[in-house]
Amino acid sequence: MTSQSEQPDMEASARPAELVRTISQQGGISVRVLIGSNLIAWAMALRDLAPTAANALGRTLMGTVLIAVGAAERSEDEPGENVQVQLRGNGPLGSIVAISDAEGRVRGTVSEPDVDLQLADGTPDVARAIGLGTLTVVRHRPGWGEPYSGNVPLTSGEVAEDLTLYLTESEQIPSAMGLGVAMADDRTAVLGAGFLVQILPGATDEEVAQAEANVKALPNLSELILQGATGDDLLDDLLRGLGGRERHYSQPIFHCPCDGERALRTLGLLERSTLEEIVDNQETQEVRCHFCGQRYEFGASQITTLLPRT
Q: 9 and 188 in contact (C-beta within 8 Å)?
């Protein structure tokens, strides 16, 4: 964990998340920065997550938002793109899933929320907890006939490196992503930040070299956010020597669209004989949302509506 002198504070965790994005002055480099502490704090409030599980899920939530927000220009009334990221490793965390829309409304879940593996210095061992496996990204936009799905090997388990590999190899966009999470020892506060730097078509060699140098020179993200760095501060560092155009700001949120109607529909996936048995025995059935933990309880009269009419 972090030392007593550099503990995240609850006030910082409670601040709304902020994403700021722009491109370099010459237009060859895209930069997005996310201060996502509040996203992780909400995930921890809704689900009882061990520190390593919270760290891994927090990284995945932020990485998914960075990919989804601003991925394509659109009009204000045009529906945006949805991005789903799934990490399926052979580590004890199992599967991690995060889904974000273009507005930054994100939700996520981890199969084994109680997993807590530590490195020698006491910090979460996210790489070992996730393990090796497959990273899948599914992108869908209204008007597309079918969603676009891409897969790459999950080779590091650090999340940022794996998403960088996906963007570079599967989408053919030279990219660099960084993600950092810092948590108080008592889990009362958490900080999180991330960035995504991408090389756009037409970028000059000088722009590329400067962008690469800026990424390499950036200190550890967890340390920066513990020191109070803002999104604009990180953007300034990543744009050093490149200049920048107008900055666009947005506030991503942890948002789960589950409701009673959707929860009831999931019961419709049960075998007809199982549903009939529940109705005959006048039992109640509970459905719990994997993303936010909300519980929905349905009685026999509601479950009857799922049975085909004869």
A: no
Give a yes or no: residue 69 inside a domain: yes
In the chain, what is the straight-line distance between the N-terminal and C-terminal CA atoms, in Å?
A: 60
**Cα–Cα distance, 248 to 268 (Å, whole number):** 43
CB 50 within 8 A of CB 111: no
pLDDT of residue 71: 67
For 146, counting Cβ atoms within 10 Å of its Cβ (0-12 exposed, 13-18 middle, 19+ buried), the class is exposed
Tens-place pLDDT, residues 70-125:
765 554 555 678 999 999 999 999 999 999 999 999 999 999 999 999 999 888 99
The three-state secondary structure class of 235 is: helix
Give the integer Cα–Cα distance in Å for 303 and 34: 43
Note whether 26 and 105 are same-domain residues.
yes
Residue-wise pLDDT tens digits, 231-288:
999 999 999 999 999 999 999 999 999 898 888 888 888 888 888 888 888 888 888 8
DSSP 8-state assignment for residue 218:
P
| Residue 215 host element (H or E) | helix 205-217
CATH number at residue 44: 3.55.30.10
Closest CA to 155 of 134, 174, 171, 172: 134
- Residue pointed to by tokens 């409304």: 105
Distance CA 203, CA 305 (A): 58
Are 270 and 247 within one domain?
no
